[in-house]
Amino acid sequence: MIAPPSLRIGFGVSGPLGQFWFREAELRAVIRQALDGGVTHFDTAPFYFDAEKRLGAALAGAAVFISTKTGTRRHGRRLVKDFSATAIREDVAESRRRLGRPSLDLLYLHGPTIAEIEAARPVLDALKREGRICAIGVCGEGEPLAHAVGTGFDAIMGAYNVLDRRHEEIFAEAKRQGVLTVAVAPLAQGLFDPRFNRPRTLSDLWRLARARVRGRYPPAAIAAARRALGDADPAAAALGFVLSNRDIDIVMTTTTKPGHLAATLAAAPLSGERCKALNRLSLDPELRRS
Ligand SMILES: NC(=O)c1ccc[n+]([C@@H]2O[C@H](COP(=O)([O-])OP(=O)(O)OC[C@H]3O[C@@H](n4cnc5c(N)ncnc54)[C@H](OP(=O)(O)O)[C@@H]3O)[C@@H](O)[C@H]2O)c1
Q1: Is residue 154 within 8 Å of residue 180, measured between CB atoms?
Q2: What phi and psi values does residue 285 have, to the nearest 5 degrees?
Q3: For a Cys staple, 269 with which of 21, 24, 147, 243, CB 3.0–4.6 Å?
Q4: Of 157, 145, 214, which Cα lies nearest the Cα of 181?
Q5: Closest C-alpha residue for ligand 1 atom 30
Q6: Quick one: pLDDT at residue 231?
Q7: Largest CA distance in the chain
Q8: What residue's CA is closest to ligand 1, atom 13?
Q9: Cα separation of 211 and 205, whole Å?
Q10: Taking a C-beta distance cutoff of 8 angstroms, is the pair 77, 70 a contact?
Q11: How many angstroms separate the alpha carbon of residue 118 from the centre of ligand 1?
């Protein structure tokens, strides 16, 4: 069983933070700020470009928890799925090397089907016995995520925010069973920011382009969420909404900006009244996407 951290905010090193054009010194500064702010849980993945290597270097010697993933590989511009035992073993060896750690605190299967989860189980158990990984989890959506609960996995990672409430029951059941629950996309990958469509940095442009390609949330729902979250501090309200759900152990977010991180670190659960108002935003299941 993984002990939940006392500060429920986690920091993900992904997206622009792993790209060659994002200065490593800036990444180190935000990671330093996160550490100083009490963050103890970091997340990354081999397919987030140079993220693992950069995170490993920035956290060298720090007594913190790092999760990473397996099952998705970058082949040039394409992402390819591979949950074979050989691929998982290779990924674990490479992640340990890049992170500079003898063992991985937590390894998630990234976006598996139920069949892929079951096929991967023997190699995951073996890697645990060998001491190469300490804990295993599933990062994904819907049925595979539900399947991970109660079948020997230590953690689940899934999307959760004011618009996307699909995994609420799965998180609740996981919490009952002592499985670590990690919510991603608490800020809908930046879309709740009213300035999202007015990029100021290369990272902003990158995220805008990614959102246009993915088109994950209906524009009308985003507009409604922005209105309901208000102008004062929409990110703090969106994070506060997720923090208000006690079934969530860790709210995993990310940022390239020290000012945004300061707001994130100050986020706190919302009042019942405020949550009730935001509850109305929840999308119909068929519209919900992470
Ligand atoms: N979402 C997924 O599908 C997924 C899947 C697997 C794992 N993860 C993990 O989850 C982590 C979190 O990523 P996410 O994209 O899901 O997180 P998120 O919290 O939904 O979105 C992060 C985005 O919000 C912006 N932001 C952060 N703080 C802000 C603030 N105070 N005000 C306005 N904008 C703010 C950031 O841009 P700025 O740089 O401009 O602040 C960034 O674009 C990842 O790093 C990764 O480790 C996510």
Answers
A1: yes
A2: -50, -40
A3: 243
A4: 157
A5: 260
A6: 82
A7: 51
A8: 253
A9: 10
A10: no
A11: 30
Supply the pLDDT for residue 137.
98
pLDDT in tens, 265-275: 999 999 999 99
Among protein residues, the one with the nearest Cα to ligand 1's atom 5 is 184
- Mutation test residue for ligand 1: of 65, 107, 193, 198, the one with most atoms within 8 Å of CB: 193
Helix residue ranges, H only, the chain: 24-36, 51-58, 85-99, 114-129, 142-148, 168-176, 202-214, 219-229, 234-243, 258-265, 272-279
Residue whose pair of structure tokens reads 């499985």 in the numeric block: 179
Residue 61: CB atoms within 10 Å: 6
Q: What is the pTM of this model?
A: 0.97
Output phi, psi for 261, to 5 deg.
-65, -40
pLDDT at 286: 56
The total number of residues written for the chain in this structure: 290
Q: What is the CA(14)–ligand 1 centre distance, in A?
A: 9
- Specify the ligand 1 atom closest to the Cα of 260: 31
Q: Which amino acid is at 143?
A: E
Domains and CATH numbers, the chain: 9-282 (3.20.20.100)
Ligand 1 pocket, residues with Cβ under 6 angstroms: 12, 14, 43, 139, 184-190, 193, 203-204, 207, 235, 252-257, 260, 263-264, 290
Half-sphere exposure (Cβ direction) of 239: Cα atoms closer than 13 Å? 25
Give the contacts of 100 (CB within 8 A, at least 6 positions apart): 56, 57, 60
Tokens of 265: 């670190």
CA distance 227 to 26: 32
The dihedral formed by the CA atoms of 164, 7, 182 and 91, expressed in degrees to the nearest 10 = 130
- Token digits for 107? 């390894």
Q: What is the pLDDT at residue 232?
A: 86
